[in-house]
Amino acid sequence: MKIINLSFCLLLFASPLTESASFQSLPAMQDAVQNFVQSSLDPAGQYQLSAAQIDPRLQLPNCTENLQIFSQSGNVKPGRNTIGISCPGAENWTIYSTVAVKSFEAVLVLAKQLNRNDRIGPEHFTIETRDASMLQPGYLTDPNDIIDKQATRFIPVGSVLYRSHYSEPTLVKRGERVSIQSGKPGLLITSTGVAMTDGIRGQRISVKNVTSQRVIQATVVNLGLVNVYLQ
């Protein structure tokens, strides 16, 4: 298969009659590319496609077979895509076009300023439709991902929210008194301890039992609460 060099295809002196009979229809190629791109995208999504970019001066031998359309990268995605158009017939030519795909999604956008370590609530964000092809990976679409989490840094109003903007909240702080639950489910004993380090939900931290002065490993369960389950 040969790839057509566009500079050799610009036959500037061809007559309209000859062009109509002998050369591939550019609108037909554009339609084929548009149909290919649309069929390659998630039908549940919201998209805006640019017209396939094909030099209007281009004159290719008329293809007697069905055109073969393909993505150079292997798949169509939001952003700029290079799309191949190939004639598998006797003329056997291939050219490339570009199509820009805008993908619109409902994303979380900050409505109220956040400072480092602030607890995030529903009042901090709103939902807006944005062109996802212009966003970095990791943007948030589900409010449940961020509610009751802790901001990792200062975030100004109007920012699209990303996974890097939050972490699990610190439920236990170093030096604070905590309740230690120990035993088995249904038979728990509660004692008082002092956290030796900060801890988030599910994290194992060192805790000193106030009564015995022993340092034990316990799992953070909730605000000021850790447990030690016995086997």
Automatic annotation (TrEMBL):
Domain SAF: 105-167
Compartment list: Periplasm
TM regions (residue ranges): none
Gene3D superfamilies in the cross-refs: 2.30.30.760, Antifreeze-like/N-acetylneuraminic acid synthase C-terminal domain
Pfam families the record matches: ChapFlgA, ChapFlgA_N
Xref: InterPro entries: Flagellar_FlgA, FlgA_N, SAF, SAF_FlgA
KW Signal (keyword) present: yes
Keyword presence, Signal: yes
CDD domains: SAF_CpaB_FlgA_like (cd11614)
Signal peptide (residue range): 1-21
Keywords attached to this entry: Bacterial flagellum biogenesis, Cell projection, Cilium, Flagellum, Periplasm, Signal
Stated role: Involved in the assembly process of the P-ring formation. It may associate with FlgF on the rod constituting a structure essential for the P-ring assembly or may act as a modulator protein for the P-ring assembly.
PANTHER family: FLAGELLA BASAL BODY P-RING FORMATION PROTEIN FLGA (PTHR36307)
Sequence similarity: Belongs to the FlgA family.
Protein name per its UniProtKB record: Flagella basal body P-ring formation protein FlgA
Organism this protein belongs to: Methylomonas subterranea
Underlying gene: flgA
